[in-house]
């Protein structure tokens, strides 16, 4: 075989192994060093190839596809800082537990660390933020090469897709010339399949924990964002059986599509009612059970830390279990579904009055929130109304910072079928547009993105993807001209440097960018226009709905709502 | 002292140490965790604080200021993926050898790796791509804390600013509450100054090398981008004394402000003349001396590799010296100026005929290039004309990919005072707008940016900086709708997938973005409009000159020029 044939075999063997391992989607950024693999991806009909010029956005786009499809997604870029641009999305994928197969093309060994152009030290580039990293050999005629490649691709995908999911990194050096021969068919793979272990809870854990749960008189469950692909029917069976108050963050997707018999146990207003000292005194728990990621609300977490329950049990797939409270007493290492289906909680000792306190407080808060949605005119009220306008069967991708908090405040338990998705691995405001666009590509449902002006601006390059593939997404930008979340923090009490360091207004509006990208643009000046304007949103294309709100008004309105709920809870208790 | 007083002392001691070490500029991105330091920066009159919301752009902006000022620049961001967004610019700073002091705010130890929001594993986040990394202790009352901080700040700046320059990373955890008391005066620093060693060439190296240079009959010097702050008067003295052909890349800044008596030795058309096999046979060297980074032109580097000179001497400040040719024979570890001023090259054996061959070929190529500049209508000809229009005393920041190559082709040796700057550490097309904007901030000369449409789009967020500080930069976008450089690579001979993977046209134009950012916008449809339109460019503001060119036409025109030069050299030799 000549060099070109050897290179051709090498890259198609990689692609065959990726396809064999279940990869369906690849996101490619243009570059020269990655040419052999880019050609192989583009010419393989089993793969769907997406494109995005900005590698930072490309990686978040891939993250979005992986979130929607619950399958590993491949990234490919050229050598140099292109690879460094993947870093923010890789970090997010690591903490959000999303399977990304990051492939970086590299210079051959003789061009590494010798001042060659576009060459950086790429092996282990992402440090502790990938589950695994491997540096591939150059394409050659040696017998071990193709078998090695095939099995290391299989290994990479297996690692990325075993619990907890996460990103892996494959660094692939290519020597010039970079051209290959196109092939219509992929080669056979000798390696057939990785069958990974399931993380079963230990027997003793099941027994011990079943006893603790059965004996508890004042327990609650708190559920944050669940692992990708969690089967919610198991969750609902558990809620039904346990009959405890279940505090669900909106990202758990257990506020929507709620089965009727589970509705009484679902507590959604925890952020509001946890601001009431009287209520907190009333519901001091003996047992707390936590699943999933840390919830958005600080107040519920502070409540747990301060109340120091006798048993605070965290279930996690990762030995690096997530508990920032510092008061956990039990850690169960297991896949959630495996643990829940093996519990014995047929007969619990829960105090009926304790459950009623939660339910009553939740109902009171709900009433205030519903009235607020009708009467108020701020950003929160707008989010609340949008939740009504967005049709059944849709998904909402929610930006970090204020949108995720507004959704958590205003999304009530409902049988309506809407899913809430966000980048909450590291809570960044970066890459949000791209992740939503990738999500909408992998999703067969209508997708909406709710985002603030700074987060939209931060990833405005997410829109470049729309130049390379048909995109369908309604982007709802809440433009309050700056960083709205800081108005809720102690920094807002200090006048000096506030706008410079925290408010950071840009005075930008986004009609021009909509025009540049040929998006439909709808401008909403205030809440009175919202309903009518929303009906003009067309689906099956890329659109921008820009809603103008006022940072000061928003925080004032929010605080007034919390005060009313607090007063309501006081009146109820006396 | 209470917690707030302790925190106040801690951050002002950091700032005092930074100021004491010579830091003048800081670039801050908004965030909560970084609040104590951000307050301290904002309230310190000895520091100039710049702001940028997008951390990727912020880091390149800081890189640009450091390049212009030849001084360390501080970056500050909050915890989480904000810090990961710095990575591309840090990698560039590492290979381009630019002193950045990267400060990332972090969560306190009890909130690390426990699922707390916006917390990622930050110590050593940038791996091998910083010269040094340190994780600071929390603010406390212990006696060792402030002395440690003060000296580690001094150490960080000393490491970043000793040859070779580079980025360092300081990770600083803060525990809530994050508010401090503002101070008008900085505290005293007990630590006064780091005095770093100079990298003097060893005596034996001076003697040996002087002998080699004196004995050489067929030698040339090749000079790429020189270390930041290189004193060019020493370089010119060397050129004068040595009297060898000196091949200067445009980024060496030895094509402009050329002293008259040095002009005869300066060879600028090496990329063109190295395409002639006849010429290469004529000037096979016995000795090559190389300074600075690897030059843009592949052809000159291939010539060196293929001709295997008896002595190929690389001078570098870094033991990781830059030589991708694989034929180097001597490495001199020293600061360039120290080495040059101590050489004894008063009387060299250079063959006068050999020098004349270089000079004649260069003159022939120059003539064709000058004629081309008058007659041709493509992107290259436009760049060539822009070089004439841009006034004396200006600087041109040049994007990687085609602009840097066009400048290298068309910028001839001239007494005119223009400097050429680029991000050539890793040759990325990312962060170029931001680096140029940062450069123009640190620069007291009029600055122009020459950039292609994809690179402009990649870092369009560089423009956000203009919302937070007065910016003065003329951005000249060569819009050829996609990746022009690939047309020169072997990939362009393969029709299949070419536009999808390499051309990647977006069909975007930038008048809307100019409007969004309130920039002056000038549209140039073809070269006939260039001269007149260029005169309408106003200075002292942010402007966009968008020039439309055609990818196919550009490559055709370039090739025609090279063929004519090749034919001209053939005719001359026969």
TrEMBL record, chains A, B:
Q: Which reactions does this protein catalyse?
A: isochorismate + 2-oxoglutarate + H(+) = 5-enolpyruvoyl-6-hydroxy-2-succinyl-cyclohex-3-ene-1-carboxylate + CO2
Which GO terms of type biological process are on file? menaquinone biosynthetic process
* UniProt domain Thiamine pyrophosphate enzyme N-terminal TPP-binding: residue ranges: 13-122
User: One matching Pfam family, short form?
Assistant: TPP_enzyme_C
**Domain Thiamine pyrophosphate enzyme TPP-binding: where?**
433-537
**A single GO molecular function term of this UniProt record:** 2-succinyl-5-enolpyruvyl-6-hydroxy-3-cyclohexene-1-carboxylic-acid synthase activity
The UniProt note on the cofactor reads as follows:
Binds 1 thiamine pyrophosphate per subunit.
Q: What class of enzyme is it?
A: transferase
What InterPro entries does the record tag this protein with? DHS-like_NAD/FAD-binding_dom, MenaQ_synth_MenD, MenD_middle, THDP-binding, Thiamin_PyroP_enz_TPP-bd_dom, TPP_enzyme_TPP-bd
- EC number(s): the record gives 2.2.1.9
Domain Menaquinone biosynthesis protein MenD middle: residue ranges = 207-398
Q: Which co-factor is required?
A: Mg(2+); Mn(2+); thiamine diphosphate
Q: Which UniProt keywords apply?
A: Magnesium, Manganese, Menaquinone biosynthesis, Metal-binding, Thiamine pyrophosphate, Transferase
Pathway it works in = Quinol/quinone metabolism; menaquinone biosynthesis; Quinol/quinone metabolism; 1,4-dihydroxy-2-naphthoate biosynthesis; 1,4-dihydroxy-2-naphthoate from chorismate: step 2/7
Database matches in SUPFAM superfamilies? DHS-like NAD/FAD-binding domain, Thiamin diphosphate-binding fold (THDP-binding)
The family line of this record is: Belongs to the TPP enzyme family. MenD subfamily.
Reported function: Catalyzes the thiamine diphosphate-dependent decarboxylation of 2-oxoglutarate and the subsequent addition of the resulting succinic semialdehyde-thiamine pyrophosphate anion to isochorismate to yield 2-succinyl-5-enolpyruvyl-6-hydroxy-3-cyclohexene-1-carboxylate (SEPHCHC).
Per UniProt, subunit arrangement is: Homodimer.
This chain belongs to which protein, by name?
2-succinyl-5-enolpyruvyl-6-hydroxy-3-cyclohexene-1-carboxylate synthase
The protein's organism comes out as: Lysinibacillus pakistanensis
């Amino acid at each position: 075989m000549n060099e070109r044939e050897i290179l051709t075999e090498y890259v198609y063997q990689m692609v065959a192994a990726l396809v064999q391992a279940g990869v369906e989607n690849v996101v490619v950024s243009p570059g020269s060093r990655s040419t052999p693999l880019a050609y192989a991806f583009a010419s393989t009909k089993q793969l769907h190839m997406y494109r995005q010029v900005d590698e930072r956005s490309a990686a978040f786009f891939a993250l979005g596809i992986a979130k929607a499809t619950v399958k590993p997604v491949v990234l490919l870029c050229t050598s140099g800082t292109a690879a460094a641009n993947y870093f923010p999305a890789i970090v997010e994928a690591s903490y959000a537990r999303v399977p990304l197969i990051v492939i970086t093309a590299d210079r051959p060994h003789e061009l590494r660390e010798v001042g060659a152009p576009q060459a950086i030290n790429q092996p282990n580039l992402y440090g502790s933020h990938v589950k695994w990293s491997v540096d591939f050999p150059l394409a050659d005629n040696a017998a071990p090469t193709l078998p090695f490649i095939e099995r290391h691709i299989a290994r990479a995908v297996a690692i990325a897709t075993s619990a907890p999911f996460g990103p892996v990194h494959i660094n692939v050096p290519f020597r010039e010339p970079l051209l290959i021969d196109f092939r219509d068919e992929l080669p056979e793979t000798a390696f057939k399949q990785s069958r990974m272990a399931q993380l079963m809870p230990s027997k003793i854990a099941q027994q011990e924990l079943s006893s603790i749960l059965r004996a508890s008189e004042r327990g609650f469950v708190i559920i944050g964002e669940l692992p990708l692909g969690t089967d919610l029917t198991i969750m609902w069976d558990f809620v039904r059986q346990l009959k405890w108050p279940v505090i669900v963050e909106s990202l758990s997707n257990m506020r929507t599509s709620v089965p009727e018999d589970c509705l009484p146990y679902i507590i959604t207003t925890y952020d509001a009612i946890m601001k009431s000292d009287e209520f907190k005194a009333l519901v001091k728990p003996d047992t707390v059970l936590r699943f999933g990621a840390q919830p958005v609300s600080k107040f519920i977490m502070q409540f747990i830390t301060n109340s120091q329950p006798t048993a605070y049990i965290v279930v996690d797939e990762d030995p690096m279990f997530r508990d920032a409270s510092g008061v956990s007493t039990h850690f169960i290492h297991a896949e959630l579904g495996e643990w829940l289906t093996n519990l014995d909680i047929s007969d619990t000792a829960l105090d009926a009055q304790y459950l009623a306190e939660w339910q009553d407080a939740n109902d009171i808060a709900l009433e205030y929130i519903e009235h607020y949605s009708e009467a108020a005119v701020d950003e929160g009220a707008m989010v609340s109304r949008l939740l009504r306008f967005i049709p059944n069967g849709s998904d909402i991708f929610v930006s970090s910072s204020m949108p995720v908090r507004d959704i958590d405040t205003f999304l009530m338990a409902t049988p309506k079928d809407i899913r809430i998705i966000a980048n909450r691995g590291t809570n960044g405001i970066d890459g949000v547009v791209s992740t939503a666009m990738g999500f909408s590509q992998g999703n067969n449902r209508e997708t909406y993105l709710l985002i603030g002006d700074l987060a939209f601006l931060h990833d405005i390059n997410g829109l470049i993807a729309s130049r390379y593939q048909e995109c369908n997404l309604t982007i709802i930008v809440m433009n309050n001209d700056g960083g709205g979340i800081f108005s809720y923090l102690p920094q807002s009490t200090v006048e000096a440097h506030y706008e410079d360091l925290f408010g950071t207004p840009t005075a930008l509006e986004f009609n021009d960018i909509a025009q540049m990208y040929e998006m439909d643009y709808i401008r909403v000046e205030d809440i009175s226009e919202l309903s009518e304007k929303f009906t003009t949103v067309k689906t099956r294309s890329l659109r921008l709905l820009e809603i103008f709100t006022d940072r000061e008004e928003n925080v004032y309105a929010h605080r007034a709502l919390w005060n009313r709920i607090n007063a309501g809870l006081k009146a109820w208790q006396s």
